[in-house]
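ok so for the tutorial part 2 we go from a plain amino acid sequence to predicted structure tokens. step 1 is just haveing the sequence, like this:
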Amino acid sequence: MLKKLLVSSLCCFLLALPPLFWFNQSAAGSHDEPVETLARYLKHLYARDFRQAYRLISSEDQRLKLANEYVRERGAFTGIALDAARKLASFIEIRPLSSRWEGARYHITVALKLPDPNALGKLLLDWDEDKLNALSAGERKNLLASLDRLGTAQQLPMIQGEESFVLIQERSKWKVFLDWAAGTQVQFATALPPNAQIAAEPLAKQTVARSGDVFTVGFKVTNPTSQEIVTRIAHRVEPKESAQHLELIECALLLPVRMRPGEAQTYRSTYLLRSDLPAETKTIHVTYDFKIENP
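step 2 — the prediction. this is what the tokens look like for a chain of 295 residues:
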């Protein structure tokens, strides 16, 4: 659950300092190195600093998804939203509970305690990036100072739980192993009405996701005509029985949208690949069937 919150809610202090760890880093040895890597990864993930998070993902996973694809699918923060999320991420706490080796893979279960981004919505303008980035320099400074005061005073609303992760060692560095190779390939296509009334294509024709992953895809839609059009989509999933496992969280194209003559727009849709997806499901086909609804 916490993994999902780390991505979709931002999409993102027990007893000792520094706040990122519940153990004393000055006494940390090689056994703690994977925990330190995991802590950095979770910190970037929470802050929606996905380009930095990607650097800590295993090269085996990176071969299946490029950095730009990874960032685009998740929707990174920018500006003061990123600064605020990074500030909050600095107060994340992680405590190792158990670990074991399975071949070259290091499995670890940790207790996590992190600021609740939803509970801080009012202070952070409901995480509306446009509103946050419209703040003056002085307002931004005051916002970050408020978060710092709350965190230092241990007054931030927090959530906590346990999660398990897998890490591997590549040369002298630890990396988070997501095992995308064992995931499901989600393929995207469009079906267009006749007479070239509209042009549309996915920005990425496919992605790989694991159960519980939240990801965003974009479609570039163009009105090539000299008339205003109203369009919407019918959302088709094959095989049909997989539709209940691929949850469409947000999609602007499900409702009619107006497009001026010659206008081009990118519309984004966010999905959750549910954890109840059968393990044998390795490919899901999604088609955006565009309809013209002009009177």
